[in-house]
Design a protein that fits this description.
alpha+beta; single chain; 3 domains; Jelly Rolls; five-stranded antiparallel sheet
Length: 447
């Protein structure tokens, strides 16, 4: 009698947790079934269907464990689905449906809370139902891809209710949670690879050069000032070295040029060896230029090389001023591309530090779509991690309505990934239809 009572309690708690955390609920229901399996003589009587349902889901687990060597979300999903399937195949007793409903009501309430809290976050990486999430603090991390156009990542955030005739100010605060900023370069050929040089006191990049003869054999860093650069003077400074001696000529080497057709600029051939060597190049943009940016290019070197300290400066009133965080380094805030080329896109930029820094961008309402939805992008350098807080978008005229931030498009509750949450709740729905046969039959009768 006491064993039966314990089984009922465990079954009720498991039914409640089916909605809050399906894997835990399924585990508790499986425990209740094991309790029920005690016979009068105290022997286990496990249903054959229990094992028959587990095996197809558990067979891949050893292989995945050997490949991944960690317990990740996929393992949780495999075990959870196995437990749920065991209940569907071998349901000797119905789950208390009132507790399933209570759990579903609690989960629905938490989903509403999550959607509300997520409006203050940037991106989907930070769980809204966490201490950081409820404080409006987001963490964004980016992998350091060696290959590809760059390692940087564009993370979007949207608002609705934007007046296309208005002017808005987008603001946020950002600080670094890693110290690996300043190594990435844009790449234009598939064969290029860029990675950070480990152990170097200054941030240095190792550039893997594709075979001779491939087109677009260069890497670049770019600055867009959001206004014409015609008649303005710029300077590029950097250091380079190569394990094997390289000597270039003409415009094979370092280029400083306008970042748009016809790409006029200055060229500096290089001679590289195992020791670091400094290079400096100046260029005045022609008065008839229509572009809004400049770029430094490392062009058509024959073998791999390393580069560090690459900066672009502008001469203003007789003094050189360093332009912050050339793309794709650091962090940049910008409107969505909306069909424009990257070179035509202005962004406010900085290199994150351990202290909070403010990014602010004036955004015309015309950047919104026809329905008044405005999307901004945060470009984050590859191989880095940042923390973002105090995200806002407000009208500058003080009369327009404040736009409404959009919530996260995918709910995750307390799961490590939205996919895992989705699979868990689909499994829950299938299980609920099976174990609540009495309630389902009653509803069908009333209908």
């Amino acid at each position: 009698m006491r064993t039966a009572r314990i089984g009922e309690v465990v079954r009720g708690v498991g039914a409640l947790w089916l909605a809050l955390l399906p894997q835990a609920g399924a585990l508790l229901l499986a425990v209740a079934k094991l309790i029920d399996a005690f016979g009068p003589a105290g022997r286990w009587r496990l249903p054959l269907g229990l094992w028959a349902a587990w095996l197809p889901f558990l067979l891949p687990v050893p292989v995945q464990l050997a490949a991944a060597s960690t317990f990740d979300g996929w393992l949780t999903a495999q075990v959870g689905l196995a437990l749920l399937a065991s209940l569907v195949v071998s349901s000797e007793r119905a789950v208390p449906f009132r507790w399933v409903l209570a759990g579903l009501a609690a989960a629905l309430a938490l989903m509403v809370v999550e959607r509300s809290v997520s409006t203050g976050l940037w991106g989907d990486e930070t769980p809204a139902l966490s201490w950081s999430g409820v404080r409006g603090v987001s963490t964004l991390s980016v992998d350091d891809r060696v290959k590809g156009s760059s390692s940087s990542r564009y993370v979007p955030k949207s608002w609705i209710g934007v007046d296309r005739d208005g002017l808005y100010l987008a603001e946020l605060e950002v600080r670094a949670s890693s110290s690996d900023f300043g190594w990435d370069w844009y790449r234009y050929a598939d064969g290029f690879g860029v990675r950070r040089v480990p152990g170097d006191e200054a941030v240095a990049s190792a550039v893997e050069v594709p075979p001779t003869g491939e087109p677009l054999r260069y890497v670049s860093r770019e600055v867009n000032l959001g206004e014409s650069v015609a008649g303005r003077r710029f300077r590029a400074q950097l250091e380079m070295r190569s394990e094997t001696r390289q000597v270039t000529s003409g415009c094979r080497g370092v280029l400083l040029q306008e970042n748009g057709r016809p790409y006029r600029g200055a060229c500096l051939p290089v001679e590289l060896g195992p020791e670091w060597r400094a290079f400096e190049l100046e260029f005045s943009i022609p008065d008839d230029s229509t572009v809004t940016g400049v770029r430094v290019v490392l062009n058509d070197l024959e073998r791999d090389f390393e580069v560090r300290g690459a900066v672009i400066e502008e001469l203003v009133a007789g003094t050189w001023h360093t332009l912050p965080a050339p793309e794709p380094t650091g962090v940049g805030l910008m409107p969505a591309f909306a069909g424009r080329r990257r070179q035509e896109h202005f962004s406010v930029r900085l290199t994150p530090t351990e202290s909070w820094q403010r990014l602010a961008l004036a955004v015309p309402g015309s950047e919104a779509d026809a329905r008044g939805r405005l999307t901004l992008l945060l470009q984050v350098e590859g191989g880095t991690s940042i923390i973002v807080r105090d995200v806002s978008l407000a009208p500058l005229d003080g009369t327009s309505k404040r736009p409404i931030p959009s919530p996260s498009e995918r709910l995750r509750l307390w799961y490590p990934h939205p996919n895992l949450a989705g699979h868990a709740f689909v499994s829950l729905a299938a299980l609920a239809l099976r174990v609540a046969q009495g309630a389902t039959a009653s509803a069908a009768t009333l209908a």
